[in-house]
Amino acid sequence: MTHMLDQDQDESKRLLGRVRKERMTEMIRRRGFMSSSALAAEFGVSEMTVRRDLAELTAQGILIRTHGGAMWREEEALETKGAEEPFFDARMRLNREAKSRIAKSAERLVQKGQAVALDLGTTTYELADRLANRNEIRIITNNLRIATMLASYPVDVYLLGGHVRQNEMSLCGPVAVQQAGKFRFDIAFLGVAALSQGGIYDYAIEEAELKQAFLTQATRRVVLCDSSKFGRVSLVHVARLDAFDTLITDAAPPADIAAALAAAGVETIIAGPSAS
Fold first, then answer.
1. Tens of pLDDT, residues 229-258
2. How far is CA 7 from CA 1, 17, 20, 213, 235, in A?
3. Taking a C-beta distance cutoff of 8 angstroms, is the pair 162, 142 a contact?
4. Which fold has domain 88-275?
5. 146: left (phi over 0), alpha (psi -120 to 50) or beta
6. Is 1.10.10.10 the CATH number for 2-72?
7. Ranges of each domain in the chain
8. What pTM does this model have?
């Protein structure tokens, strides 16, 4: 029994360490540079722990170590296509400006007192960051990154349980789906891998099942999708276009997709440069 408890504690520490490094990476990306002492204070860990994290991130080619801290290493965006899901940090570097604009437009839809479902995804993560100080709402998510990031802010956060997908740091499976079914969301925001005339798609069966639960339990259903995903499909078909109410994107969809969205009664919001 003691051995099993030790294993559980070790696993928990590894997960927390991974989330901390990803949040650290995002903070340095946003600011350009952060000192080791500032990072230690931000995360409540020792500077030795921070230096170890920075060394790992530098070895992965994500950051550049400097005297007393680290700075962001700009890299060319990576193409994502097909059924294989790229890692979260790689997706975060794709179409960053577009995702930021989409998140800002999405934030405007959230009203005081609402219960808000936030799905897994890089754009939903951007939205969560914008909602962090909204202490008059409740956020329900299966995303460990979102829950961890919001833990130090006044917003109310509920984390669904279930099986941990370690690469994505999400909770999914029958337990998560069952728990989602007990909520009634005023608004749900979904990230997608692809969008075509046939509907919305995802990389993982487990995530698709939870997205379907969010769609079923929400009064208003909003898909966040940057224009690079138009006209594509992925491994799992999540839902038809008439299963959601609103699409927020950064550019007008191609004519065939725009016509299909209109026929399905979907409102399309274009988050242009003025939304930045």
1. 999 888 889 999 999 999 999 999 999 999
2. 10, 15, 20, 32, 34
3. yes
4. Rossmann fold (3.40.50)
5. alpha
6. yes
7. 2-72, 88-275
8. 0.69
